[in-house]
Design goal:
Layout: H1 2-17, E1 22-30, E2 36-44, E3 53-58, E4 64-69, E5 76-82, E6 87-95, E7 104-111, E8 129-131, E9 143-145, E10 160-163, E11 166-169
Antiparallel strand pairs: 1-2, 2-5, 3-4, 3-6, 6-7, 8-9, 10-11
């Protein structure tokens, strides 16, 4: 009876041994009042084999930063990034390449004026809102609600809509 039980246990252990690390969290910290940030990504390693993986950070303004973990590396890695313009950005981290980490994580960051900028008051929108591009003139600016990550799930017979800053099902 030992043989039939041992085979499924061995198969389960083998499958777990080849599991890739998954992205656990992403955090973005603004340095000072400027546009420099530190992006911290933590992975979870599912096995004792301490597997390696790689990911791609998309800064939200077109910037991309590759990042990877090797055997023996700390679970958390950081990357420094400087935005060219003040505003709110959605930072996305996803597995990439041959040995891709599993998963996708996102965070939102709002950054102020670049270093040396003469403007003393950069408009900031509240959480969940983004600055309308080129709307800031003097002390005047406009914020728009951030669109949802995914469309709403509408009941049968209705369809999702997004127009004029409003979303819903019709």
């Amino acid at each position: 009876m030992r043989g039939p039980i041992a085979a499924p246990v061995l198969l389960a252990l083998t499958e777990a041994a080849v599991a890739a690390p998954r992205l656990d969290s992403v955090a973005v910290q603004v340095l000072g009042k400027g546009t420099d940030v530190v992006i911290s990504i933590t992975i979870e390693r599912p096995t004792l084999l301490d597997l390696s993986c790689s990911a791609l950070i998309e800064a939200g303004d077109g910037g991309r930063i590759p990042i990877s973990w090797n055997i023996g590396d700390s679970r958390t890695k950081t990357a420094r990034y400087e935005y060219k313009r003040p505003g709110s950005y959605r930072v996305r981290v996803a597995g990439a390449g041959k040995d891709a980490c599993v998963g996708l994580k996102e965070a939102t960051v709002s950054v102020g004026a670049p270093k040396g900028d003469a403007k003393s008051s950069t408009p900031r929108c509240p959480t969940g809102w983004i600055l309308v591009e080129e709307s800031a003139q003097g002390g005047r600016f406009t914020c728009r609600a951030r669109p949802p990550l995914q469309p709403l799930r509408c009941a049968e017979g209705t369809t999702y809509f997004a127009e004029g800053g409003e979303i819903g099902c019709r």
